[in-house]
Amino acid sequence: MANTRNAPRRAPSTRLQAVEVGERSLAAYFNVAPTHILESLDHEAERLRGARILQLNATPYGGGVSELLRSGVPLLRDLGLDVEWHVITGDEPFFRVTKAIHNGLQGDPQTLSDEDKAAYLATSARNADLLGDGWDFVVVHDPQPAALLPLYGKGDAKWVWRCHIETGTPNLETWEFLRGFLCDYDAAVFTLREFVPPDFPVARVATIAPAIDPLSPKNLPLARITAKQVLDWIGVDLDAPLVTQVSRFDPWKDPLGVIDAYRLAREEVPDLQLALVGSMALDDPEGWDLYRQIQEKAGGDARIKLFTNLTGVGNIEVNAFQRLSSVVLQKSIREGFGLVISEALWKGTPVVAGRAGGIPLQMADGTGGALVDSVEEAADEIVRLLRDPDRAAELGRRGHARVADHFLLPRLLLNELMLLNEIAGNGPADVLQDPVCGLVLDPDADLPAIEEHGHRRVFCSDDCRRRFLTEQLGEPAAEP
Ligand code: UDP
Predict the structure, then answer these.
(1) Where are the domains of the chain?
(2) Do 224-406 and 17-207 have the same topology in CATH?
(3) Could you tell me which of 176, 152, 169, 161 has the C-alpha nearest to residue 57?
């Protein structure tokens, strides 16, 4: 930050709602996250020391973005950065429009009315008036606050738009509306390259996969006996096999398809139980509509149980569910990343998941469980795993190892700080990256690689290596 360090500095400010987070120490991640990542992260933070960073999103709880910020913001502070997390505010009509934009970007054909667009702009303008200045970087998460930049102006800050949803095949009318607000951003971040929408107006696009915090209450080690007590207390039968899906009640997560798959699997495993654990997010008004549909479809079946954050199912309960379930199901149809996959695998629990968005990257090369494309396949794979506990345990072990290598929070922060250094003009980082998925790799690890014109390319998995060969070089996918 050569250009900002010596300038007289005004305290950065906004009058938006600040989200309080606890204190964290990066030192706690030694022996948990890979050492090469922690060392590079420290180096990248050093190059930005003192930088004032505003993280902006729409909700302090519920969903993956708030998970990432709650853990990431205090760690960045521990690394010497001056980071604040603020949320925009809006009423229910605004969040209905932003959910419609979210749905449209994921391909929903429903279009926005002129009233919808006016409501989005009016609330964005009110929030833009509250956006103070003095920041070196403003990182805007998802479509809800995206219009604040053109409505407020860039000031001296570098602006990054971080898109967490699956936007590769958007409803073009919705995309055209949002696109107009993005032109002045300095960089944009997507979880996968294929999520970049058509005719994207920002030149610098980075691919950064999210990650989980292994030391958050949701993911930290929990004794089996304690986990059992937690689930027993809320009414789970500990003597019967359990399938669980943990997600917002959102049509893209296909909770109704989950019930169909469960019912098919139960024909083979009669004592099987299903838990649908869902949170209500402030910015997701569709949640209650879907909750009612799920209740209706479950039709009073005592072996299908619905749990929400509003009835006391919080991080520790989710931890216990992900740890003790025989199989974690995530039957998504569209999925930006799906933190719940890494959360379950981190606990060694096998996963059956929709082949959607960021899920296959987490389960590359068949690690962690099975990818499925239909209700029937989901049911078959659940039954297969229930009948073969040794295979289930082995898949869970391999899934845990993949998460440990690639999907823990310090790696995400490293990728993000590399981008901020780059757009600040501090030059590129000296790290090894997978050219397909952008993950930072261990230079000393034995990983899939190819030689290309005397240049060695290294990949996180054979899946990424194959994709590189087919897409970049036009060669047929060779088996490893
Ligand atoms: N989550 C939770 N309680 C619930 C449902 C979800 O804590 O009842 C958490 C879940 O553990 C994960 C996040 O919400 O950390 C969801 O993130 P993901 O990326 O899977 O999906 P998103 O909601 O962002 O689409």
Answers:
(1) 17-207, 224-406
(2) yes
(3) 161
Nearest ligand 1 atom to alpha carbon 278: 8
The strand ranges marked E within 155-231 are: 158-162, 187-190, 205-207
How far is the centre of ligand 1, averaged over its atoms, from the C-alpha of 302 (Å)? Answer: 24
- The structural architecture, per CATH, of the domain 224-406 is 3-Layer(aba) Sandwich (3.40)
Distance 150 CA to ligand 1 centre (A): 30
Q: Is 247 close to ligand 1, i.e. is its CB under 6 Å away? A: yes
Query: Is the C-beta atom of 338 inside 6 A of ligand 1?
Result: yes
In the CATH hierarchy, which fold is given to the domain comprising 17-207? Rossmann fold (3.40.50)
Res. 476: pLDDT tops 80: no
Tokens of 210: 């999210």
pTM of the model: 0.94
Determine whether the shortest distance from the Cβ of 339 to ligand 1 is under 6 A: yes
Amino acid at 268: E
Task: Report the chain's mean pLDDT, rounded to a whole number.
Answer: 94
pLDDT score at 301: 96
List own/partner pairs for 198-207 with CB under 8 A and 24 or more apart.
198/170, 198/172, 202/161, 204/422, 204/423, 206/415, 206/419, 206/438, 207/437, 207/438
Q: Is the CB of 213 under 6 A from ligand 1?
A: no
Say if CB 151 and CB 129 are below 8 A apart. Answer: no
Alpha-carbon span 212 to 33, nearest angstrom:
11
- Percent pLDDT > 90 in the chain is 89
Interval between CA 43 and ligand 1 midpoint (Å): 31
